[in-house]
Model the fold of this input.
Amino acid sequence: MQDIARQAGVSAITVSRALGGGTVKAETRQRIVAAAETMGYQLNHAARNLRQQRTSTIAVVIEMQPSAARPISDPYPMSLLGGIIEELSKADFSAMLLTAEKFMRLPPSVDAVILLGQGFRNDAVALIDRCNHPLVVWGSSRSDEGRHVVVGSDNVGGGRLAALRLLELGRRRAIFLGDQGHAEPADRLDGFAEAFAAGGGCVIDAIASDFTFIGGHQAMRTAIEAYGRDFDAVFAACDAIAMGAVRALIERGRRVSEEVSVIGFDDAASAQLFSPPLTTIHQDWHEGGRQLARKAMAMVQGEAAETTLLPVRLVVRAT
Done:
């Protein structure tokens, strides 16, 4: 810093502020940076982080256990990760990607944690809480009582949109597919059931399902065995479940859209490519990822961060 200070005609403390992100006039900062580059100096980020007792790294913990039926390359969580990394990279932060199990077994040195998925009855949140890092959660603030900063879609509102669409089509007896032990599906069912009942409809059953095509297929077969043709609508907690349900209905001779309407949730790219193209509720995962990153970085800086609910919209296709 002394060498650069002499070259730039400033004090060593001004060099420190300019290269460390402190308050310095733009013209002075440019002169200092140019002098450092001319002299072949580069900022040692590791040393700076050690001095500031920070790592400039955010742990992104994925609650789900990747599998062949639900790979990590799926739109969830990849779209969220895209938004997170885009925002972190702008601020020279790094992301460390781990599963919840790996995070707890070998806790890394990080400044904050972004948790993607709350787990069954919020067990993943309770687990990560033990590490006492600043924490931002993707999901629902249901039953959280303001204990955590949460970013999520308007799941209750999305359920209402699905109900209103089905009522508009004249549907009155619906089945919900999804695991209510997870907060987001529970919110979606709450919004759906309230609006559907207000319009004269009835949710005749809610059947648990994994967040997969296979899970939806199996759950729909269970519903068909129990109720035969005594339902005319299906609302699924995610697109993968909905597509599995459509396949099961077609296999059993039900005419999708003519006899029974199906609505999913997510608007993943596969929903549009599926045959028939899936009617669904769109949520903006990429913007969600950006919001998660911004709030995590704010908490690292000691700034306030608040829970955010992102809007959703109905996408009408063929089901």
